[in-house]
Amino acid sequence: MKQLFGGGIHPDGHKDMSRGGAAVPVPAPETVVIPLCQHIGSACKPLVAVGDAVLMGQKIGDGEGRCSPVHATVSGEVTAIEEREVPGGAKVLSVVIRNDFKDARAEAKGAEDYMSLSAAEVAAMVREAGVVGMGGAAFPTNSKIASNEGKTETVLINACECEPYITSDDTIMCTCPGDVIGGARLLAKALKARKSIIAIEDNKPEAIAALRAEAGEDELVEIRVLPTRYPQGAKKQLILAVTGREVAPGARSGALFNVTTTANIFRAVTKGQPLLEKIVTVTGDGANAPQNVLVRIGTSFADVIKAAGGIAEDTKQVIAGGPMMGKAVDTLDVPVVKGTNSILCLTKACDAAADPVCIRCGKCASVCPMYLQPLYLYRYAKAGDKEMLNEYYLNDCMECGCCSFVCPGKLPLTETFVQAKQLLKGGK
Ligand code: SF4
Ligand code: SF4
């Protein structure tokens, strides 16, 4: 199979460490912390007060505009509404709930004739369930559904999971193929598209077989197998790989949904099921027993790691996400949020070299999937030269980490570009 987008790399996948079998449920914790903003957009306002009793699945935060509601993931009592740290280091107003371990559930009802729903009806149910993009961006999914009705011939389902180590999407495809295929069919029908294409890399043979068996000869769904290459799951690269179409800078990527999001859309519409739990890959050479676990949102990283067998004493770094695009956490007292797909525990920290040197080898430019010139961007970022950073399209950098990965001089390229974007936005 030939490569279908420019640049990219082949890092070691490390996926066999954690893949295989169903996700193991993590016991519900004594306390959950539910941040009121777990998506791109405006934060929710709390719908509960300290001392209130809540049911599992009850909506406890919502708001106007581009906002995705949040729900209680245990039944119990609200003990605090206060700022708490989330993965990534920000402090976010959060609802803290003490678990009564009764799992008393709020009523949930799905649509019976779900294949006849309009895009607006699907979007409303998806919004009510608090479904956001699970591929990293956490964009409210209902907005994407509502804005793409009748505007696309093909719905694209991103099942690449190209980031090394992570196998949470892989697990949902292997263990719940009915929800994935059901969601793909539902989206194709609601958006009035010809079909949904599930794009998956060839390093997931069990998932490919499970999806094919489930889809059968269904004309609304196609499984498209792509050669494995990072960052194939990035939206512009995936659209190019599947459709041959380039997305212009700044243009919307259209009807593209992550595969776990697709399963959650199906559950929201057919069962009225809010987003309460998710599969998280606990992995890395620091994890004592790498595996996938099923976690209630709001459970602390510490509780998840403990339930997954703990970490080695010489663990140097814990990352929320993968090694390429994840963010190191400095405390395990942060909750799993809707966008958490992995907790990566490493015994060697991915720190930059003490004396990074550019030897002008050009490797960074050759792997950049956005055709940028990382060595020049780095130079201008260090000089704080905003004009040249714009001239060299810094804002097109998608922070994929390919340039840092190949740089023999160990320059902290991606990290520097993240900071330089803040400079362009007017920060320091
Ligand atoms: S890969 Fe590193 S050393 Fe090579 S040109 Fe780019 S920044 Fe310089
Ligand atoms: S991090 Fe940015 S500059 Fe580096 S390879 Fe990725 S897109 Fe290109």
Write up what this structure looks like.
The protein has 428 residues and is an alpha/beta fold. Among the domains are: 110-271, NADH-ubiquinone oxidoreductase 51kDa subunit (Rossmann fold, 3-Layer(aba) Sandwich), CATH 3.40.50; 363-425, no CATH class. Helix content is 28%, strand content 19%. The protein contains 13 helices and 17 strands. The chain has helices spanning 119-128, 141-147, 168-175, 177-190, 205-215, 235-243, 259-271, 301-307, 363-367, 374-383, 386-391, 402-406, 413-425; strands at 24-25, 31-35, 45-46, 53-54, 59-62, 70-71, 76-85, 91-99, 154-159, 195-201, 221-226, 256-258, 277-283, 291-296, 317-320, 327-329, 342-346. The strands form four sheets. A six-stranded mixed beta sheet has the order 1-14-13-17-15-16, with helices on both faces. A four-stranded antiparallel beta sheet has the order 2-8-7-4, with no helix packed on it. Strands 11-10-9-12 form a four-stranded parallel beta sheet, with helices on both faces. Helix 3 (168-175) runs parallel beside helix 5 (205-215), helix 4 (177-190) packs across helix 5 and helix 10 (374-383) packs across helix 13. The radius of gyration is 21 Å and the shape is globular. The mean pLDDT is 93. Residues 358-364, 374-375, 378, 406-409, 411 line the site of one iron/sulfur cluster.
Overall CATH architecture of the domain at 110-271: 3-Layer(aba) Sandwich
Fill in the CATH topology of the domain at 110-271.
Rossmann fold
Radius of gyration: 21 Å
Identify the CATH homologous superfamily of the domain at 110-271: NADH-ubiquinone oxidoreductase 51kDa subunit
- The overall pLDDT, averaged over residues, is 93
Main sheet characteristics: 6 strands, mixed
Helix content: 25-40%
Distance between the termini: 45 Å
Report the structural category.
Answer: alpha/beta
Q: Bound compounds, please?
A: iron/sulfur cluster
Spans of at least 5 consecutive residues with low confidence: none
Strand order of the largest sheet: 1-14-13-17-15-16
Number of strands: 17
Total helical elements: 13
Principal-axis shape: globular
